[in-house]
Automatic annotation (TrEMBL):
Origin: domain of life: Archaea
Basic and acidic residues: bias regions: 358-376
UniProt-listed Pfam families: PQQ_2 (PF13360)
Family matches, as PANTHER family: CELL SURFACE PROTEIN (PTHR34512), OUTER MEMBRANE PROTEIN ASSEMBLY FACTOR BAMB (PTHR34512:SF30)
Region annotation (Disordered) ranges: 358-378
Domain Pyrrolo-quinoline quinone repeat residue range list: 80-230, 252-361
Protein species of origin: Natrialba aegyptia DSM 13077
Protein name: Pyrrolo-quinoline quinone
InterPro entries referenced in this protein's UniProt entry, alphabetically: PQQ_b-propeller_rpt, PQQ_rpt_dom, Quinoprotein_ADH-like_sf, TAT_signal, WD40/YVTN_repeat-like_dom_sf
């Protein structure tokens, strides 16, 4: 296990000759003019006004806190561990951990300290760890677990984590002392077998844990099981408010926080539960959006292509409040048909359309030779804007659908928004000013 502090990183950078060129090997292709060009489509010497900085090792971005951007380096050309960059300049602050073979770290959880889980191989061998790091990247404490492949959760002074030895553990967030551990047993051909429970969320003193078809509610204070629920199909998403809402591949359901089933409805090909806003549950089924009454499970409205339309659209959903204070549901979709353009639409909670705009061509604000794929990959809202990631760019729209701008970066893995917008690709991490 290697830890890389800011001083060590800058020594490596100095040897490479430029800030931000740490551990880059074999990830860039030659462009037509001979300059290095990555799979993200950006030449290293491209001078886009929107690009504030570039960190030349690929990875994912997770969150910004106190001026630091946290994420993970790509394990092929980087360490595969936790990465901390100055959010304003892109300079590396520190890195922690190095993967090898099939080992991996989880996305970091950032609070007063930084927490991450580690799994020693992709198929799982029941041996792993969780780490707490100080704000300079030094190791504060380590807890022994099975292999950890899902982000730990933090609440009520505890770090709660599930691992592939079939256990869920609660660690003191400050000291790392193990407060409690509980076992969750799966079945293999009728025999008990180790499983890999996932801590989906923690709320109001309860850790909600899924294991295939079963949802568990564990008391954060002592790990006692409060209740369990059998969904009869693999659980695919979970949201907790004053009620627990869930989806499987063929249904949507609601459970009271005491474990009592309130309602379930059949809905084939459910992908995920996307939001619960003011008494309405929004779920995506196939490429359609359904709005379901949170109280009784009845369908309020749906957003689907016209009957008989020749379409195979892709949609992405986000929720947010506009300047008038009203909540909106934002839908980014590629073309409904050969003649209809890709769009970004804002719907009121009753399904009425408030505004719509064509999902912009990156040619409008960048170089003419850029690709123009408009299939949406992800969507989010922040600071009065809607951000849409497509196959070849990240787009920003002010609420109302106006003031479109875009940067043509292909194959974006993840994005986050702070003082700048941040994107991670296989080749690099970028800070963008729109």
């Amino acid at each position: 296990m290697d830890e890389f502090t800011r001083r060590g990183v800058l020594r490596a950078v100095g040897a490479a000759g430029a800030v931000g060129t740490v551990a880059v090997a074999g990830c860039l292709d030659a462009s037509a003019d001979g300059s290095p060009k990555g799979d993200d489509g950006i030449d290293k010497d491209d001078d886009y006004d929107e690009i504030a900085w570039r960190y030349d090792t690929g990875g994912s971005v997770e969150t910004v806190r106190d001026g630091i951007l946290y994420g993970q380096e790509d394990f092929v050309d980087g360490t595969g561990g936790v990465l901390a960059l100055d959010a304003a300049t892109g300079e590396p602050e520190w890195r922690f951990g190095r993967t090898g073979g099939y080992s991996s770290y989880t996305a970091p959880v950032v609070d007063e300290f930084v927490y991450t889980g580690y799994g020693d191989d992709a198929i799982g061998s029941g041996s792993g760890s969780v780490y707490a790091l100080d704000d300079d990247g030094t190791e504060r404490w380590t807890g022994e677990t099975g292999s950890v492949y899902h982000r730990p959760r933090l609440a009520d002074g505890l770090l709660v984590v599930g691992s592939d030895d079939g256990a869920v553990r609660g660690f003191d967030r400050d000291s790392g002392d193990e407060r409690w551990t509980v076992s969750v047993e799966g079945e293999d051909a009728g025999e008990p077998a180790p499983t890999s429970p996932t801590v989906e969320t923690v709320a109001d003193g309860v850790a909600y844990v899924t294991d295939d078809e079963t949802l568990y509610a564990f008391d954060l204070a002592n790990g006692d099981e409060r209740w369990r629920y059998d969904a009869e199909n693999r659980l695919s998403s979970l949201t907790v408010t004053d009620t627990v809402y869930f989806t499987t591949r063929d249904c949507v359901g609601a459970i009271s926080v005491d474990g009592t089933e309130r309602w379930t409805i059949e809905l084939d090909s459910v992908k995920r539960l996307r939001a619960v806003v003011r008494g309405t549950v929004f779920v995506v089924r196939g490429d359609d959006l359904f709005a379901i009454d949170a109280a009784d499970g009845t369908e309020r409205w749906s957003d689907e292509p016209d009957a008989g339309a020749d379409t195979d659209r892709t949609i992405r959903i986000a929720a947010g409040a506009e300047t008038d204070g009203d909540e909106r549901i934002y839908i980014a979709s590629d073309a409904d048909s050969d003649s209809d353009p890709a769009t970004l639409r804002a719907l009121a909670l009753d399904g009425d359309e408030r505004w719509s705009t064509a999902l912009g061509d990156v040619k409008e604000s960048t170089k003419p030779e850029a690709k123009t794929e408009t299939e949406p990959r992800s969507i989010s809202t922040a600071d009065g804007s809607v951000y849409v990631v497509t196959a070849d760019a990240i787009h920003r729209y002010a609420f109302g659908g106006e003031n479109h701008s875009a940067v043509p970066i292909a194959d974006i893995w993840s994005h986050a928004v702070g003082e700048l917008a941040y994107v991670g690709t296989r080749d690099a991490v970028y800070g963008l000013r729109f």
